[in-house]
Structures are given as C-alpha cells and as structure tokens.
Design a protein that fits this description.
The protein is mainly α and 458 residues long. It has helices at 14-44, 48-56, 58-84, 88-115, 117-123, 131-141, 146-160, 165-187, 197-221, 232-268, 272-288, 290-308, 312-337, 341-348, 352-364, 369-384, 388-413, 416-457.
Amino acid sequence: MASSTKAKLTEGPIAPMLTRLTIPMIVGIFAMVSFNLVDTYFVGQIGTNELAALSFTLPVVLVLNAIGMGLSMGASAVISRAIGENDKEKVQKLTVASLILAVLLAGVFVITGLLTLEPLFRLLGAEDDTLPLIKEYMNIWYIGVIFVIVPFVGNSAIRANGDTRTPATIMLSMVGLNVLLDPLFIFGWGSFPAMGLEGAALATVIARALSLVLGLWVLLRQEMLVWSVPNFSDLLDSWKKILFIGGPASLTNLVVPLTTGLITSIVSGFGKEAVAALGVASRIDLFAIMVVVALSTVLGPFVGQNLGAKKMDRLQEGVRLSQRFGIFWGIVMLALLYFSGRFIGAWFTDNEKVIEHIALYLSIVPLSYCFRSIYALDNTILNVLNRPIIASIITITMMFGVYLPLAYLGSKWIGLEGVFGSFAVAYGYGGILSYILVRYQLFKLKKDSLEPELETNT
C-alpha cells in the first residue's frame, strides 16, 4: 500500500501523538470559530437589527454543520478503519463515495432552504424589522452550501489518514480570505459599494469555495481521491457503510440546531437584545470548547485506525487520556469566562442590555464545560465504535428530555437565567451518561476481542 495512506496512528507513544495531532486542529478550529466571530464582529458594527438578523440565522447554520459533521464522522470512521486495514483501493472508493454523497445532500439542502426561507424564520420568531435583513443574507448564503458540506467530508478524509496539519492550513487560508473580504464587502471601499449583510454572505461563500478547491487538490495529491466514479453497486455499498454511522450522527447533530432554534424562539420573548446576546454568546461558547472539539476530531481517526488494526489496549489508553484532558479543559474555561462576560460582550456591541445578557450567559453555561467536554469526546468514540444509535439516544434525551422542558419552565418561572441554566443541567446529564456507556462499550469490546484468544489457548 502506498505510504500516503498507510496507518500512522497505531504505533508510538499515545499522549505525544494525540498532542501533536490536536495542535494543528486547534489552529484549524480556532480559524473556523474565528470565521463566525469575524462575521459577528463586523455585522455588529452596522447595528443591533443586523446583529439580531445574523443571530436568527445561527440555527440554520448549525443544521448545515450538523449534516456536514455527521457525514464527515461516518466517512472518517470507515476510511480510518480501511487505512488501519491497509486497503488502499477501499480507501479510494470510500473517499469518492463520501464526496458524491456530500454533493447530493448539499443540493437538497439548498432547494429546501430557499423554498422555506420566510416561513422558517417567521417560525423562529423573526419580525418585520429583521426578516428583510435575514433574506439579504440567506439568499446568498444558501448558494454556497456545497462549499460547506463537501469540505467537511474532504477534510475528514484527510484527517482519517493521520494528517491534521493540512486541514488546519486549509481552514486558516479560508478564514484569512474571509477577514480580507468581510470589511470590503460589508462597508465598501473606494468605488466598491457597501453591501451590508449581503456582503457578509458573499465573503463567506467565496472564502468557503477556496477551501473546497484546496481540499480536493490535497486528496488527489495523497492518492485518496481518483477521477473515476465507482460502479453503482460499489457506490451503494460505500454509502451504506458511511450512512450507518453518518446517518444517525447527522440526525443526532440536527437535534442540537433544532433545539437551538426552539430556544431562540423562547429567548425572542425577552426581546431582540436577548436574541443578539444569545447569538454572540453561543459563538463564544463554541470558541471556548474548540480545543476539546479539536481533540475529538483527532480521537475519531485514532480509534478507527486502532480498531481496524485490532489494538484494543492502545485504543482504551487513548480514550482515557482524552477524557482526563477534557475535564481539565472544562475547568480552565470555567475559570476564564465566569467573571469576564461583560468585558467580552463589549468587544461585539456597545448596547448595554446585550452586554448584560452575554455576561449572564457566560456566568452560567460554563459551569457545564467539564461534562460537555466528556460528552463531545464520547459521542465521537461511540460513533467510531459502530454504536451510533447509543450516541443518538444520549443526545436526543439530553436535548428533548432535559434541555427543552427545563428551558421552557425556566423561562416562565425564573426568566432568562432559567433558560441558560437548563443548558448547563442538560450537558451535565449528557456527560455523565456518555461516560458510563463508553466505559461499558470498551469493556465489552475488549472482552469480545480476548475470547478467540482464550479459545485458541484452551
């Protein structure tokens, strides 16, 4: 098998390896989160209505990310196992199939989004002063959906090969272009017209198109992508393997933006300032846990390659080390954000009411970061271990059984504090339950792997 797709994560000290792989992903995810924060910052300079309009788009953005992340999780799991098995042809078939599937899903998302634009955002609580602004942004943003989903899958395939530096470089290039284009398109310069929210959306689409081109080029260079479409039978077989994990993962990930949409509707009852604050604070939230998210993207290929190579002790040790780090990082972020909410909020807006709501969010939600870190890591582990249904059950019960009911009751009985507090309680539940179930699955997996050996010895 060519060295370009040879298993790289099945040998060597585990902690240094995970650290070395995670650092580029931290940079890459920092770039991705910065991508959203840059848009939020520049749009916030236009006005509160524009910032609220951008915040209303967050659930839709999260839906797309959920589909992309779920599909990329399925692709990464099966590709990393094929790499662990040293089957180059299988790796190429799975990579091509995953990219074709991403293009098809992107087309469905674009058509559905454009046809449901106004009723969807009315349902989310958008009113006459923000809906025209939302349309300005989303009519352009929807066109670039293919530049979001396909790079999700392409970068996951590159990471499955044990290469985290290249996806990070691609994401940095994309963000750099967005930083240059955002102020130019939003505010105008010289004879270039100021486009406002339309400019923010156009900058996003162009920057993400760059990531698509770079990702495909890298896959070709690494010999993971070939310009030949598998026969229909092989294509269906590959899609079945990818969607066995990616399907439940996407549907499960959709629970989070769906819940976010419903929470946005609840928060809209407290005024547009509360909605604007939720949009800003949610992005800060993503920024705070990006290190754990980076580790989870590395942990998936690590678990997949070692599972394919049948190295169970190594797999379990990597999981233990990752979980310990997740708890540590949650404590660090809690200490950093708990008292700094007003200071951070002032970076994005000068509206005092919005700043107060941001500070309130950041004094409550970070209390759950340790549990949220464990949940993020263990959700990835369960999917790669071919237990997507278990991962789905945890997320669905966490969001629909705990978060939404508590948020609704909290909004009625306590106020905005009750809505934010329900988020912390929900992730506490999700973190504890996922930790218990991952430990059980790893114990069962190791026991099953030892049984043939015991039978041989007897």
